[in-house]
Amino acid sequence: MTSTPALPNFDDVKQAQARIAPLVHVTPIHSSAQLSALAGCELFFKCENLQKTGAFKARGACNAIFSLARQQLRNGVITHSSGNHAMALSYAAAQCRTKATVIMPSDSLKSKKDSVKSYGGELIECTPTLDARESTMQAIQAKTKATFVHPYNDPLVIAGQATCAAEFHEQVPELDILVTPVGGGGITSGSCISTMALSPDTRIIAAEPKAADDAYQSFQAGKLIELPSPTTVADGLKTNLGSLTWPCIRDNVSDIVTVEEQEIVNATRLIWQRLKMVVEPSSAVVLAAVLKYPEAFKNQRVGLILTGGNVDIDQLPW
Amino acid sequence: MTSTPALPNFDDVKQAQARIAPLVHVTPIHSSAQLSALAGCELFFKCENLQKTGAFKARGACNAIFSLARQQLRNGVITHSSGNHAMALSYAAAQCRTKATVIMPSDSLKSKKDSVKSYGGELIECTPTLDARESTMQAIQAKTKATFVHPYNDPLVIAGQATCAAEFHEQVPELDILVTPVGGGGITSGSCISTMALSPDTRIIAAEPKAADDAYQSFQAGKLIELPSPTTVADGLKTNLGSLTWPCIRDNVSDIVTVEEQEIVNATRLIWQRLKMVVEPSSAVVLAAVLKYPEAFKNQRVGLILTGGNVDIDQLPW
Fold first, then answer.
1. What is the pTM of this model?
2. Hey, are the CB atoms on A49 and B314 less than 8 Å from each other?
3. Distance from A81 to chain B by nearest Cα, in Å?
């Protein structure tokens, strides 16, 4: 065991921005007059579904891999992920000409498995629990000495994800509220770091599926609570907060709100129909939260981070 | 009967640009490294699915309605359309505070019918033939004296649609080829006018569903050929060329190519999966054409106009 590394600061985020700029897109902001009218506030969507590999995870994976020493790169990288981090690591490794091994739960979307392989990553499936993911990975890592890139509880990954909110505040100044989806907490803690530095008056509200509400429960209890194997249509948000992300979120978000499965599906449909964007259900959790608690957002300038667009279009959740 | 009006020139297009600027979006250009690699050329997609009302038709409808005299506006406007022009006219009429009556074939997508009503248009259904559309409309128009805004065979509509290619050439200079979808010919003839003025070296290739290939047949025969009631998954491209659009297309496009129904569906899926964009099958005809005839596009800078994003997400064509 190594000691817990420190949370990145905004200097780390600026370094990440410079490091990953050639590798990722500055994603656009989209809006819909009809969606804003429906929500009763001004909505700005940060389209990470249009990011490389179709999700914000490309930011953190690129920052982590392009920070590795040459010796580490020789042994490759390894991770476990329900999908988007796996694809992001495969992409980042290919850009860096190193090898990525990814452990994915067997119930991951076929489209995400295919995509990992298409980016050149080696895919290894395991039973869909956090324990199985970690034990499978450790067994392989013992042999290959590959560097583990955690999907969220890693300072370089968090600094990479933080570049999303940093961009967002430059593109849309003076947001009253930034709504982030919360799974493992990488994008939420990163959003906290960038928002404190660039737009300290913006409040951060994290949105989470009720069916995987470890962050909500932790926030209410004031201590880290883990859930064993939650299931939600927002498959990117099943993971538990980590030792790095939890204290940052505890100390910096204004609130954590939860939404039901059907609310997530309804919000996904709305984004497809109104924004004309293909987004995964994890992306829609933020809109579902705004529509569920209109009083909290009324007449505000509200930024929403869309996590990604990697859905199996043959297996839509409606 | 009035005499056939003249085709607009590029001055008309510039006037249209100024007239409709407050009413429509400058739509973004999206690309995908994976799609470009697949096609063997550099692809630039003009995202009219992100246009107001979800289709390029908002341009022409706004230009037509905002050009009407006050007396004409008192009697409202009327049209027949399989969908996107109907929605566009309803939107434009609402912006101008006049009434739109729209005749739609009964087999139009439910989402498009709902959308016409949501914009405040009065929807009247008819049997799905061009004859029925025209006779139903004439009967109503005789009573209301509403001004008919043709979906494509109208100089103001063509000038409005021409603003799309005008924008495109400013956003992406030096396209080698511009691929336009062809139905009634409004977007294609408009693209010819703007391209001749702004980027005369760009060749225009029109793409059409084989199942509704009146433009292809006309181009091959050198005379206007009409098809009675074609059926295609690209429901926006069923219409026949008109007396204004046909000669412009005949004289200015480099080629017209056709694609099969399954090729359109496959290309639609690719755009959803790779561009993360919700587009209607009519939008995908242009990509289907590029993928079908790779030699014609090899290593070129290719612009593609995506017509719109109005699909019924409960009735996907796969």
1. 0.93
2. no
3. 20
